[in-house]
């Protein structure tokens, strides 16, 4: 059922409507891209499920005023109709694109599409299972946005002759269970780091348009504002229960900060041609995104990672090297390959632990977490 009669995901007002539109196009979608999106490794985007009843029991009374303001902003739907190709969408010469860049860029798009869609699936499910109007209202709005984002990336992929079959993914991809508090930490961070990533690329290309090798980057500003609002919502959800951000939970927050930053760093370094084409130094970009995310996360987390500590940088590089060794050993057969893989895994675990043990920075958290996107 297409409630508002929309024919494009950008105009869809609910996630269900957006997905129905994508479903109708799925016959053109490619097995390769869907295969990539199906991958479940430590580094690829996953689908999550959680204890929906616990989430539904949240009481937002303590943050009611700021909550209502945020919801009203999302209901006003400033980005309705934005995520579709228009006259700003320049022709993309996929055939003329340098093969290495094409491969990495498609990988980037598929991984972004999967991550967007992962949010959509989780938020949509929460809306479906819940009975608390505050919670279901919020999750329906966020699912709407993520369906548009995923749909738009898929439109870009379709031009390259590949696209992710989102309907198939919903049914076939493995779901990882996370307790609600882990969902808050992980999802809050992925929304905010998503904002920081999109805005950093957007600002860079605004200053250096000659590096904009694909039109999708022109859409990143409005895009990142959606992600910013989603992050705000999770900050408010966490604010309703102060226990989530103190005591032993601070160790969990540190774990998620470390895991999210390290994953991004490793993944980005796997795409050298992509970053070169954008005219971006991958180390600079990582540092920039971590700085922005840390600054924002002070709104709710009492710690930030000491990303300028030489031990942090050194162990991050070692972790990345161990991961490269692991990838290379993946194709080696026999006991030699097995030993190489085991060695790389042990080293990766050790460097991750060392990264985790670098002392964090502590600070006061404001009473009112609300922020406006400032970059
Ligand atoms: Fe999104
Ligand atoms: Fe989001």
TrEMBL record:
InterPro entries: AcsF, Ferritin-like_SF, Rr_diiron-bd_dom. It catalyses: Mg-protoporphyrin IX 13-monomethyl ester + 3 NADPH + 3 O2 + 2 H(+) = 3,8-divinyl protochlorophyllide a + 3 NADP(+) + 5 H2O. Pathway: Porphyrin-containing compound metabolism; bacteriochlorophyll biosynthesis (light-independent); Porphyrin-containing compound metabolism; chlorophyll biosynthesis. It comes from the Bacteria. GO terms for biological process: light-independent bacteriochlorophyll biosynthetic process; photosynthesis. Catalyzes the formation of the isocyclic ring in chlorophyll biosynthesis. Mediates the cyclase reaction, which results in the formation of divinylprotochlorophyllide (Pchlide) characteristic of all chlorophylls from magnesium-protoporphyrin IX 13-monomethyl ester (MgPMME). This is Aerobic magnesium-protoporphyrin IX monomethyl ester [oxidative] cyclase. It comes from Marinibacterium profundimaris. The lineage of its organism: Bacteria, Pseudomonadati, Pseudomonadota, Alphaproteobacteria, Rhodobacterales. The gene is acsF.
